[in-house]
Amino acid sequence: MRDISENSSVKENAPVNWTNMLLFSLTPLFALTLVPWYGFTYGYSVYDWTVFVLMMGFCGISITAGYHRLWSHKAYKAHPVLRFIFALGGACALQNDVFNWASDHRRHHAFVDNNDRDPYSAGRGFWFSHIGWIVRNYESGKQDFSNIKDLQRDPILCWQHKHYLTLVLVMNIALPALLGYLGGSIMAGLLLAGLLRLVLSQHVTYLINSLAHMWGQQPYSDKSSARDNTVLAFLTYGEGYHNYHHTFQWDYRNGIRWWHFDPTKWLIRSCEWLGLTSDLKRVSPLTIETARLEMQYRHASEKCNALANAEKWRSKLEEEYQQLKATLDLWAMHRQQWYEAKTTQLQDQLHEKWDQLALRDSYREVRYKLKLQRQRWQELMQGFSNLQQNAA
To answer: Which of 36, 92, 209, 386 is 20 to 30 A removed from 222 (C-alpha atoms)?
Structure first.
């Protein structure tokens, strides 16, 4: 695994950003004191908590689906109506305008873990990557819009950038107050849908910059500190599959399995059915499986050196690896042919039917072969783990 502290430089005595320092110091303090005080004194209604949850989701999804996957990574295209909604939600989340957010994030991916160039490098510790980079004016976080020229051509984003402060005040004060008024208590709306929602939604997002680079697994790549973490995925609307994201950042999905909790992916896909999103980018299954296989093979190869009869085990490993890799390539080819045949219209319908049946049977046969070889491979990986534990 890459050592993320290897490029640590002399501690930088950056000037304090007093606006951010006060914001990120006072809002949590007020949330910890005023919110429970009002709750014990006057109480919150079911309506108040419902609005709080909906506002949390609105801000969170605007960041993950809008700021992150749409604008930072161009993983799909969105209708102007959806882009406008995300621009409002981003201002409500109070995580800066899209220009600044996306510029920082693109540099994060380009120079991940580089303490001098990654705006929120995990190599500088949890505090720095979580919030420390915001409360001081570090050189690595210096504003530079040279990498977002494509976004500067979007009139909605130009409008948000120009009127960002006004939007922040409207979305964080006027809107919660209005919603609170409709529920019978302006103060309850300001405290729950305004203050508490703001603090929690910000720190939930920042967990991806910090904890998702320190806690979890690296099934696809260890070229960066990014990790997959199911718990974080649940808290961050699907962003917790961070090792996958850093390996395949152009994919509109973070959780690629059907059981992965990724409501951002579900929203983007649902909006495609409604005509609000298009050109959803996906990484091919072969590319994904090959990345997983390469990581497992490399780790197993390293374990061989500590085993008795290392050459024997290395030979067995190489044989299984080459067989599984060849079957993966064959499976991908048959899979593509089968899906193309299902969507191709031929003049001879009968001939098409028989061709499709033959392709289907061939694809199923290769898929079953791949399943068996995967089982053998997993058994071999487990065997390596057991042998290493016994050797220890």
So the answer is: 386
Q: What is the pLDDT of residues 371-391, one digit of tens each?
A: 777 777 677 767 666 656 555
Residue 197 lies in a domain: yes
Percentage with pLDDT > 70 across the chain? 83
Q: How far apart are CA 116 and CA 96, in angstroms?
A: 22
Cβ pair 255, 241 in contact under 8 A: yes
Answer yes or no: do 232 and 362 share one domain.
Answer: no
b/e per residue, 96-114, with b = 16+ CB within 10 A? bbbbbbbbbbbbbeebbbb
Paired residues of 228 in beta bridges: 217, 241
Domain boundary among 230, 251, 278: 278
> Comparing C-alpha atoms, which of 193, 199, 196 is closest to residue 50?
193
- Tens digits of residue pLDDT in 148-165: 999 999 999 999 999 999
Residues 264 and 307 in one domain: no
Closest CA to 208 of 265, 142, 129, 136: 129
User: Rounded to two decimals, what is the model's pTM?
Assistant: 0.86
In the Cβ-directed half-sphere of 172, how many Cα atoms lie within 13 Å?
Answer: 21
Residue 5 falls within a domain, yes or no?
A: no
End-to-end Cα distance, the chain: 21
